[in-house]
Amino acid sequence: MINIGIYGGSGKMGTMIFECLKNNTKAKVSSIYTIEPLNYEPKCVITDDFKTFFENCDVVIDFTIKDGAINLLNYARTNPKPICMGTTGLGEDGENLLKTASNMMPILYATNMSLGVAITNKLAYLASKALRDFDIEITEMHHHHKKDAPSGTALTLAKSVASARDLNLKDVMVTGRNGMVGERSKDEIAVMSLRGGDIVGKHTIGFYNDGEFIEISHTATSRATFANGAIKAALWVSEQKNGLYTINDCLGI
User: Fold this and answer.
1) Considering the domain 115-220, what is its CATH architecture?
2) What is the CATH number assigned to the segment(s) 2-109+223-251?
3) What is the pLDDT of residue 122?
4) 146 an active-site residue?
5) Beta-carbon neighbour count of residue 136 at 10 Å?
6) Annotated catalytic residue, options 142, 203, 218, 232
7) Residues of the chain with CATH 3.30.360.10
8) How far apart are CA 6 and CA 175, in angstroms?
């Protein structure tokens, strides 16, 4: 039985991971790190102290915010522990820290823990490579509480389709259009964000040409999709050597 520590146990994802682990036969929640009150009553260690949190788990699952993830990685650099991280919006400094920390422990980082999104990303890469004359537009929709835009998943998809065409996403990404912006450039990749209601997550990658278009879309209807994916990823990364892994490594695709 693997002991899982939930970092950020009071959040929506932390709560869902706890619920999904209740009947898991391979893992259990052994510690929860939180600075906010919980709306459930777990029978495990609850703390806001990193040392206590780390001492009572085998692997950590993190779904928090950038500052929280950076604090976790900084502590883990001197107290290595396998980490499954799903926090998005890390920025360049956070991603660099992630790479540095992975030299000292196994870390699986994914902007989306869904199997369906992993397959969507693979399909989008193949389509981008094969349909080089098609324009690419990406839209993502999320609930009105989401803080970062574009979503981490949308950026992952955008990087994937850009790399399929040997493009640097920073050079070709557009995140908004307003006024007389001129004609669309050939290599342009638009990533547009919509926010509203309680939408868990929807991502669509469109490939548009004269006379035809293809759209690849993934819709999440429950956070349990991400929670179960994170649990599977945490169990997998707990057995790996030091290094930085992706959800594709875990799924073998």
Assistant:
1) 2-Layer Sandwich (3.30)
2) 3.40.50.720
3) 94
4) yes
5) 25
6) 142
7) 115-220
8) 33
